[in-house]
Amino acid sequence: MASLVNPGNTAVRSSDAQPRLSTKNRSANMTALEKYRLLRENRKVVRRQKLEQEKRQISS
Protein backbone atom coordinates (compact mmCIF):
# COMPACT_ATOMS: atom_id res chain seq x y z
CA MET A 1 0.00 0.00 0.00
CA ALA A 2 1.29 3.44 -0.87
CA SER A 3 2.44 5.69 1.93
CA LEU A 4 2.16 9.43 2.18
CA VAL A 5 4.04 11.73 4.50
CA ASN A 6 2.06 14.31 6.44
CA PRO A 7 3.54 17.56 7.83
CA GLY A 8 4.36 15.81 11.14
CA ASN A 9 6.73 13.51 9.20
CA THR A 10 4.79 10.38 10.17
CA ALA A 11 3.79 7.95 7.44
CA VAL A 12 0.10 7.36 6.84
CA ARG A 13 -1.60 4.95 4.48
CA SER A 14 -3.10 6.54 1.39
CA SER A 15 -6.45 4.97 2.28
CA ASP A 16 -6.37 6.82 5.63
CA ALA A 17 -5.61 10.12 3.90
CA GLN A 18 -8.74 9.91 1.77
CA PRO A 19 -12.09 10.92 3.30
CA ARG A 20 -14.37 7.99 4.04
CA LEU A 21 -17.64 7.71 2.14
CA SER A 22 -20.78 6.47 3.80
CA THR A 23 -22.05 3.09 2.62
CA LYS A 24 -24.95 4.79 0.82
CA ASN A 25 -22.64 7.14 -1.12
CA ARG A 26 -20.18 4.34 -1.88
CA SER A 27 -22.91 2.05 -3.24
CA ALA A 28 -24.38 4.85 -5.37
CA ASN A 29 -21.05 5.09 -7.22
CA MET A 30 -20.73 1.33 -7.76
CA THR A 31 -21.70 -0.57 -10.86
CA ALA A 32 -24.14 -3.46 -10.61
CA LEU A 33 -21.26 -5.92 -11.02
CA GLU A 34 -19.32 -4.32 -8.17
CA LYS A 35 -22.40 -4.44 -5.93
CA TYR A 36 -22.94 -8.11 -6.83
CA ARG A 37 -19.31 -9.00 -6.08
CA LEU A 38 -19.48 -7.18 -2.74
CA LEU A 39 -22.71 -8.97 -1.84
CA ARG A 40 -21.17 -12.36 -2.68
CA GLU A 41 -18.08 -11.57 -0.62
CA ASN A 42 -20.24 -10.53 2.34
CA ARG A 43 -22.24 -13.75 2.07
CA LYS A 44 -19.01 -15.79 2.08
CA VAL A 45 -17.84 -14.01 5.23
CA VAL A 46 -21.16 -14.57 7.00
CA ARG A 47 -21.22 -18.24 5.98
CA ARG A 48 -17.63 -18.71 7.21
CA GLN A 49 -18.46 -17.05 10.53
CA LYS A 50 -21.52 -19.28 11.02
CA LEU A 51 -19.47 -22.41 10.31
CA GLU A 52 -16.79 -21.34 12.78
CA GLN A 53 -19.42 -20.64 15.42
CA GLU A 54 -21.04 -24.06 14.88
CA LYS A 55 -17.61 -25.75 15.16
CA ARG A 56 -16.98 -23.94 18.45
CA GLN A 57 -20.38 -25.02 19.81
CA ILE A 58 -19.78 -28.64 18.80
CA SER A 59 -16.32 -28.73 20.35
CA SER A 60 -17.57 -27.17 23.61
Q: Strand share of the residues? A: 5-15%
| H/E element sequence | EEHHH
Helical fraction equals 55-70%
Calculate the terminal CA-CA distance, rounded to whole Å: 40 Å
Structural class: mainly alpha
Number of strands: 2
Number of helices: 3
The overall average pLDDT, rounded, is 78
Structure description:
- 63% of the residues lie in helices and 10% in strands.
- With 60 residues, it is mostly helical.
- Strands 1-2 form a two-stranded antiparallel ribbon.
- It is elongated.
Task: Give a brief rundown of this model.
With 60 residues, this protein is mainly α. The protein is 63% helix and 10% strand. The chain has helices at residues 14-17, 23-28, 32-59, and strands spanning 3-5, 11-13.
List keywords for this structure.
single chain; 60 residues; mainly alpha; two-stranded antiparallel ribbon; 2 strands
Write the layout of secondary structure elements.
Layout: E1 3-5, E2 11-13, H1 14-17, H2 23-28, H3 32-59
Antiparallel strand pairs: 1-2
Region (Disordered): 1-26
